[in-house]
Amino acid sequence: MLTFLGMHVLGHDTAVYSGSVIDVFARVGVSEEAVRSTLTRMVGRGLLIRQRHGRRVYFGLTPRATEVLEDGGRRIWDTGAVNRDWDGTWTLVGYSLPDSRRSDRHDLRSQLVWAGFGLLQNGLWIAPGTRDVTAIAEPLGLLDHVTVFSAQEAKPTESADLVRKAFDIEAISARYRTFLDRWDRPKPLPSAPDDLARRLLLHTDWLQAVRQDPHLPAEHLPADWPAIRAEQVFARLDARIREASTRLAEEVLDVVAVADG
């Protein structure tokens, strides 16, 4: 659903009719009940707003959803899958929270993983380059509980050792290989009914891969790192089907301008 909203609602100042969302998701095998349930949960989580036009219910983005989707867009189009510009620095984060704040601890860990951090050792997280930890900890109310450093490794520690210890290279690689298995072929996903469905699935699969990639320095990854090939495949396929997908979306989606206030 986030992929769909990012592709067809973000940046348009529109709200989309629930029935046309159901139509699109039916093309990828998602039931009407599941779509309605997801839309309702997203309203409850402050990601969507409802507005009525006659008997129809339309859904638009909240500022929070816009922020989430814009971050996803940056990961897809700006950050890229391969980090060739690492400056040799690391951001280190330590924190201490009592057992009574176990939920906060879980939220902080989740946000650190999303931001590209790996667990180096108990209570110490690390990510390549400079990361804005304030933007992670402040919304959680945890600024007073984190300690942040920017540093470089020193002997006997090597950057390659940090990459190996803090990050599951095999799991990251496997996600890209799974993407390639599905999409790196002359006629990918022939079971999809049209390019609207195909592009939705393509972007969903790609975002699943890059959102769990900490963007590690290319110099410390295997020469045959699959993200390189996967990124090329994604860009080529998206360019091939974007026009047809956009045309179909314009025909299928019933949208209205977002109501003021």
Could you walk me through the main structural features you see in this protein, from its secondary elements to its overall organization?
The structure is a single chain. With 261 residues, the protein is an alpha+beta fold. It has 3 domains: 2-65 and 253-257, Arc Repressor Mutant, subunit A (Orthogonal Bundle); 90-151, 2-Layer Sandwich (Alpha-Beta Plaits); 168-245. It contains 10 helices and 8 strands. The chain has helices spanning 2-8, 18-26, 32-44, 63-79, 102-114, 134-137, 159-166, 169-183, 195-210, 226-252; strands at residues 14-17, 48-53, 56-61, 90-95, 118-121, 124-128, 146-151, 255-257. A 4-stranded antiparallel β-sheet has the order 2-3-1-8. Strand 2 (48-53) and strand 3 form a beta hairpin. The chain is globular, with a radius of gyration of 21 Å. The mean pLDDT is 93.
Largest beta-sheet details: 4 strands, antiparallel
Strand order of the largest sheet: 2-3-1-8
Percentage of residues assigned to helices: 40-55%
Tell me the span between the first and last alpha carbons.
24 Å
Overall mean pLDDT score? 93
Give me the secondary-structure category.
alpha+beta
**Gyration radius, in Å:** 21 Å
* Envelope shape: globular
Number of domains: 3
Total DSSP helices: 10
What are the secondary-structure elements, in order, as H or E? HEHHEEHEHEEHEHHHHE
DSSP strand (E) fraction? Answer: 15-25%
Number of strands: 8
Low-confidence stretches: none
Domain Transcriptional repressor PaaX-like N-terminal: 2-64
Domain Transcriptional repressor PaaX-like central Cas2-like: 84-163
Domain Transcriptional repressor PaaX-like C-terminal: 167-249
Protein name: PaaX family transcriptional regulator
